[in-house]
Fold this protein.
Amino acid sequence: MSEHRVAVVTGASSGIGAATARALAADGWRVVLVARRADRLAGLAAELAAGGGEAAVEAVDAADGGAVAAMGSRVLASWGAPSLVVNSAGAGVWRFLEETAPEEILGMAGAPYLAAANTCAAFMAAMLAEGRGHFIHIGSPASLMPWPGATAYTASRWALRGLHEALCMDLVGTGLASSLIYFGEVSSEYFEANPGSHEHIPAVGRWIPRSTPERCAEVVRRVVRRPRRVVFHPFTLRLMWWAAKLAPAPTRWLIARTGRRH
Ligand SMILES: NC(=O)c1ccc[n+]([C@@H]2O[C@H](COP(=O)([O-])OP(=O)(O)OC[C@H]3O[C@@H](n4cnc5c(N)ncnc54)[C@H](OP(=O)(O)O)[C@@H]3O)[C@@H](O)[C@H]2O)c1
């Protein structure tokens, strides 16, 4: 085991991020918990400490570049360069653009996209100096196969995918890696936190079985052990992606026809 087993997990106050933090702590990682709700993070940190783990609480809005840079400085000063950054911070209501207020568009650009870019940027120089490290981004099928009625959400997801693809090029020969994991529907608090979204899942999307945050954390754990550029979970989502590549027009038609207009 390396002396550099520090992981930064954004979105750690809930769902996939919280489950990932638990899984990493169980594997012996020191975990930096990042999200806005300090009480949730403190509760998780106490739980991890009770289990013999070590966690630091960083209650910041990851969309705020200055706040994330300050958080990065604190982490580097106390624990040094992380070996792993998991970008799971994300929110977004699924609406048509004409139903979306400008501040909501900004909020969706803030997380996941800006949150991930800010967090990677805060640790990049230190990780490059170490010559090793791994960025894992939690993505959405919306950046593979968009559906109707989730416009600003989809745009931010494509930005996250773009960040990952650009990092894959930037990181060639550095010893660092970037992975993007696409999950289907997950039984987290996401749809309670973003009301009105679940109704926009196209009927065809219901063929993809729902995963628990804990199952997603297992997938993240697997990717930590064996970095891959792109990962799909569950397998049905990968099948759908193959269908979209082999027969793009019929797949788009099916998604559009089984999505709801209003
Ligand atoms: N649920 C699904 O069906 C599903 C499927 C595929 C992909 N995903 C993606 O997976 C990621 C995690 O989602 P989840 O299902 O675990 O949802 P969740 O339970 O709602 O968790 C979202 C997390 O993001 C944090 N967050 C949101 N905005 C933030 C910001 N500006 N700064 C810092 N933290 C922020 C939230 O914490 P605070 O509110 O405390 O800041 C929370 O910890 C999201 O990007 C989501 O879109 C979800």
